[in-house]
Amino acid sequence: MNMLSAIATPVLSMILLAVATASAQSLAGMEIPAITVRSNLVMVPALVKTKAGEIVFSLNADDFVLTDDGVPQSLQLESDTDSQPLALAVIVQTGGQGASHLHDYRDLEAVLDAIIGNVPHRVAVVSFDSMPHLEQDFIADTDAAAKTITNLHEGDPGAAILDALNFGINLLSKQPPAYRRAVVLFSETIDIGSQTSFENAIRAVDDTNTSIYSFGFSSTKSALKHQTSELPRPGGSPYSDEPYSPGGCMSHDPDADPDAHGKRSVQALDCASDLLPPLRLARMMYIAAKDGLARNVPESVAQLTGGEYFTFKDANTLNRHLVAISHDVPNYYVLSFRPQLPHSGFHALKLSLKDRPELLLRARNAYWVEAETANNK
């Protein structure tokens, strides 16, 4: 190694470390919601079935492999989670296309009881059109909550799904820590009118251990056309082994990094992501999550949290799917881990099974670490 290389190597390492630190902070610096993770224990709910749809009960922690931003983690299997108390927020769209489905939510008493199971519980009901409305604060009376849902009235033309989710998750965050948290969401696929950005929606969904079970009906063609026009153009940053165009990833050329939208902090994150594999994986997953929310909100939030997503057209298909959910909810494996030295911001999770290709696995695929939590490690 010559003298120039000996000097350049540590300098380059220091630059990369500085870029990585600034990059992680740029993701964590997004504004809103008031939710903050106070514990560094991350829960990863997982549902395992055979290809014939039968639930698999016989696995243990050693049968799973989990990576956090590509880094393997040590897993624990939480025991008796189905006996823990449950806080459930039922979020129902009454505006826009949701008005035509209000009659589908009648007579939900029995199926809500089945989803909750025989555990202490609290249920809240939130409706939304162009804004969320608290129809029923948390109560233990499931029948009363179901009656509230039955008596919901048609709202305005809005469909602010992200605002409603943000509102409901904030309600859940105030429930006792011993309670499991879950959302049942009934909505169309495309958000119309939310003030909550995609970035802040991802942050709200992923920085609490909340599972979301979603039931979606089709948005109007005009809504789909409008939302498609706002999606990021294909390609974006080149997240591949191909180098950036001349000038490098931090070029002042506004077309050098389309995902940055002219923001140097975002461009710095993209540069670090291309250079540093863990950040690169988190960034790619983050962009995929944003695209998912733009294309289908209920499906995307279910995937992010390890819940389930169903489409429905009428009360019959909805009730069939709700019964399926009631069978699945008590049978999730709940795995947990404590990330070592977690960076603040978005983390990509990947859970897989060891040598069990015949089984199908559904699990949470992301979580969020607030800067305060990361700094307290």
Write the layout of secondary structure elements.
Layout: H1 3-28, E1 42-50, E2 64-68, E3 71-72, E4 76-77, E5 86-93, H2 109-116, E6 121-128, E7 132-139, H3 142-150, H4 161-173, E8 180-188, H5 198-206, E9 210-217, H6 221-230, H7 264-275, H8 277-295, H9 297-305, E10 309-311, H10 315-328, E11 333-337, E12 345-353, E13 359-363, E14 366-369, H11 371-375
Parallel strand pairs: 5-6, 5-8, 8-9, 9-10
Antiparallel strand pairs: 1-11, 1-13, 2-3, 2-12, 4-11, 6-7, 12-14
CATH class of the domain at 81-230 and 293-336: Alpha Beta
- Which structural category do the helix and sheet elements fall into? alpha/beta
Number of strands: 14
Termini gap: 37 Å
The CATH homologous superfamily of the domain at 81-230 and 293-336 corresponds to von Willebrand factor, type A domain
Strand order of the largest sheet: 7-6-5-8-9-10
CATH topology of the domain at 81-230 and 293-336: Rossmann fold
Q: If you compute it from the alpha carbons, what radius of gyration comes out, rounded to the nearest whole angstrom?
A: 22 Å
Residue-averaged pLDDT: 79
- Apparent shape: globular
Number of helical runs? Answer: 11
Second CATH tier, the architecture of the domain at 81-230 and 293-336: 3-Layer(aba) Sandwich
Helix content: 25-40%
Main sheet overview: 6 strands, mixed
Share of β-strand residues? 15-25%
